[in-house]
Design a protein that fits this description.
The protein is mostly helical. The chain has one domain (41-203). The protein is built from 3 helices and 5 strands, in the order αααβββββ. The strands form 2 sheets. Strands 3-4-5 form a 3-stranded antiparallel β-sheet. The longest helix is centred in the first third of the chain and has 52 residues, at 14-65. The chain is elongated, with a radius of gyration of 25 Å.
C-alpha cells in the first residue's frame, strides 16, 4: 500500500486542517464586516427618515401655533427637551399642540429617554427609559424627556427663525444657521459624537 493511500485513509494532515480553519476564519470575518456595514446603513436610513418626520412635525406645529418650538428664547439654544415637549406631549400647558404633536405611540418608546439636563458624552452614554407614568401627559406633572436617535442619543434641535440673522448661531459660534434655515435637527450619527453636522452626523440639511 503506497503513501498516498495511507494518507487518504488517515484523513487531513494538521497543516491542511489549519489552512481550512484559516479560510473559514477569513470568510467569517468578511461576513461579519458585511453585516455590520449593512446594519450601519440601515440605522443611518432610519435616522434620516425620523429627521424627515420631525421636520414635518415642526412645520405642522408652526402652522398650528404660528411659531416654531422654542421661539422667543433669549438666544438660539440646542434644546432637545424643548422639541419633545412641543411635539410629543399634546398638552398645551406643557407647550404641546394637540393638532400637530407626534403620538408617542407612533414613535418607538425605546427611543425616548429621560433628559438629565445636559448631553452625556461619548458613544456609550446611556439615557434612562421613562416609566409609563412619565409618558402620560394628561396631567400637570411632566418629566423632561427627549427623542433618541437609533444609536440612543438625543436628536439635536435649534430654532433660528425668531432670531435676527446676525445672531443665528450658538454661543461660541461653533454652529450657525445655513442660508434661510428656520431650524436645524441632527443626530450624532454612528460615532455618538456631536460634530455640528459634519463627520458622520445625520442632518436635516444635507
Amino acid at each position: 500500500m503506497d503513501r498516498a493511500t495511507n494518507r487518504a485513509r488517515g484523513g487531513f494532515t494538521l497543516i491542511e486542517l489549519l489552512v481550512v480553519m484559516a479560510i473559514i476564519a477569513v470568510l467569517a470575518g468578511l461576513v461579519v464586516a458585511s453585516v455590520s456595514k449593512l446594519r450601519s446603513r440601515a440605522l443611518v436610513a432610519t435616522a434620516t427618515t425620523q429627521i424627515s418626520s420631525l421636520e414635518g412635525a415642526v412645520n405642522n406645529y408652526r402652522s398650528s401655533t404660528t411659531i416654531f418650538p422654542n421661539a422667543g428664547a433669549p438666544a438660539p439654544k440646542d434644546d432637545p427637551e424643548g422639541l419633545f415637549r412641543a411635539l410629543c406631549t399634546g398638552n398645551p400647558r406643557l407647550g404641546g399642540d394637540r393638532e400637530s404633536y407626534i403620538d408617542v405611540g407612533e414613535w418607538p418608546e425605546e427611543q425616548i429617554g429621560v433628559w438629565p439636563g445636559s448631553y452625556r458624552q461619548g458613544p456609550e452614554a446611556q439615557y434612562d427609559k421613562p416609566s409609563p407614568e412619565q409618558l402620560d401627559f394628561s396631567g400637570g406633572d411632566y418629566t423632561p424627556l427627549v427623542l433618541l436617535d437609533p444609536w440612543g442619543h438625543p436628536y439635536h434641535y435649534v430654532e433660528w427663525d425668531s432670531h435676527p440673522r446676525n445672531r443665528r448661531q450658538l454661543a461660541g459660534g461653533q454652529f450657525r444657521a445655513r442660508g434661510n434655515q428656520k431650524f436645524a435637527i441632527w443626530s450624532d450619527g454612528p460615532n455618538g459624537i456631536n460634530e455640528w453636522g459634519e463627520g458622520d452626523d445625520v442632518t436635516s440639511w444635507k
